[in-house]
Amino acid sequence: MTDTAHEVADLGLARAGIRRVDWAEHSMPVLRSVRERFASERPLEGLRVAACLHVTAETANLLRALRAGGAEVALAASNPLSTQDDTAAALVAEYGVSVYAWAGMDPASYDRNLVTVLETRPHLILDDGCDLVNTAHADRPDLLEGVLGGCEQTTTGVIRLRRMSAEGELRLPMVAVNDTATKRMFDNRYGTGQSTIDGILRATNALLAGRTVVVAGFGYCGRGLAERARGMGARVVVTEVDPVKALDAVMQGYTVTTMEEAAPVGDVFVTVTGNRDVVRAEHLERMKDGAILANSGHFDLEIDLAALERLAVAVDRGVRDQAEEYVFADGRRVLLLSEGRLVNLGAAEGHPAAVMDMSFAVQALTTEWLAANHADMGPGVLEVPAGIDTEVARLELASLGVRIDSLTPGQEDYLRSWRP
Length: 420
Description:
May play a key role in the regulation of the intracellular concentration of adenosylhomocysteine. By secondary structure, this protein is α/β, with parallel strands linked by helices.
């Protein structure tokens, strides 16, 4: 029996979890190299880290790196459906991480676990969706004492942090890990694009070729999703509120229209906006029989679930794993995936390990930088130093066996000078 504090589903699953974590590590060479350096240099010695992240094998490898660097780590889940119970058990039993997470936890347990990890009195916070920071500021400001700063790795979380900062409410330096070029390109575009399609197919076994997929939101996540849906033969319709992003979608050859006009023609609807009530009652009332609803935005607010319940005269919650069929009065049916939560983690396994390798390497190196430089920072949302992003990209290219050119001295001089 482990002495590490925890609340997980079953520690007996640890052996299976270790195998899962090791399998993911094979595709995470950049993070592995960071962990090896951390183990020799111990840059996080004596620091406590509170994390709210998806409890997956990829996350486990990030936390292994932090532990190798000397940190004590307490982890809560950032989504009630995304926890891999075997990974949670392995983190506790094998890697010495205090985990408070299990698959399918109720909202009260979810909120309690956030407070539990904050009560470890962390020096650093790793957040996914701003839940830890929000909980500490709104409900338990006493737990902010001693927190030096933190990192946020989602678009939704960075939006919330910037609003807190603009209103003068943010009391910590928080680094926007989400906003690095490698994170947006690999995690948001390639990771979300592939894993969302994966989740939809696992939950429905639907054929996308020849069907109309409506993508709500054309940020990095929406672009990746639209590309992959089109690559599988789907007709892709994009809805947007941002004129620049909408124009980008038009110039890439997608049909761009309103959700009102897309509702009666779409076969599959996926929201990736970071906002709420993107699919509302007036849209649900116009959808065709058999329409599929999925969300890959952080919170389960993008589809108006209350309206869906109100319109339905019957609900079959066991039609398929991670799928619920809502029947309307006129006999039309719509299929909701993963309770309107992140379909790529609820119905699938999230981003491939090779994608999270880069994202979590940035996260680990930014945590190291924050620990070393926090004394020079004030409250607010900070950018990741460009050198970290460049170093991670360099390590990834090296792991792929890709060589690139270097600037010659003459080229460097030319770029530094304005003179002809």
